[in-house]
Write a structure and sequence with these properties.
The protein is an alpha+beta fold and 155 residues long. Helix content is 25%, strand content 30%. It has two helices and six strands. Strand 5 and strand 6 form a beta hairpin. The protein is globular, with a radius of gyration of 18 Å. The termini are far apart.
């Protein structure tokens, strides 16, 4: 677990997109998880659960809200289907302002965008978090669907 008093000046990352293989995180789908007995802790391999693109980006913004100083920046890449792109589909958070949005074209139908957010206020509740997660999940699903559709080139 992270100490709550750790503050960074910047976070720069390129999270997994889960396109070719699904993104996962350590966790369990069980409602209640039992502690691992001491004798098994050295050899225990934790289970993993799916970690969707929408969840990755919203969790990144939530983590950054807790661990970035006011005025600090968060930069990350996000995959985009060029045909369906709109700025409204990007992740957002009430404590951050989008200050840069640069496109790197990967093909005629896909690109990725480097998004740079600046923290402009402290500790506001993220009341629209679930709506934002769903918006980014939808964008990711559309990207994944069109990514594989474009790979099907007839002979």
């Amino acid at each position: 677990p992270w100490r709550q008093d750790v503050l960074f000046d910047a976070i720069v990352t390129d999270p997994p997109y889960g396109i070719r293989e699904p993104a996962a995180k350590v966790g369990s789908n069980k409602d209640e998880v039992e502690a691992i007995p001491q004798e098994y802790q050295g050899t225990h391999i934790p289970s993993k659960v799916d970690y969707g693109l929408g969840d990755i980006f919203i969790d990144l913004l939530s983590f950054s809200n807790l661990h970035l100083r006011l005025g600090a920046r968060l930069a990350f890449w996000i995959p985009i289907n060029r045909e369906y792109y709109s700025i409204e589909m990007l992740p957002a958070h009430p404590c951050f302002e989008l200050v840069a949005n640069c496109e790197q074209v990967l093909s005629s139908h896909t690109s990725r965008r480097c998004l740079v957010f600046q923290k402009v206020r402290d500790g506001q509740d993220f009341q629209d978090e679930e709506k934002c997660r769903q918006r980014v999940r939808d964008m990711a699903a559309k990207f994944r669907e069109n990514f594989f559709k474009a790979q099907e080139i007839p002979c």
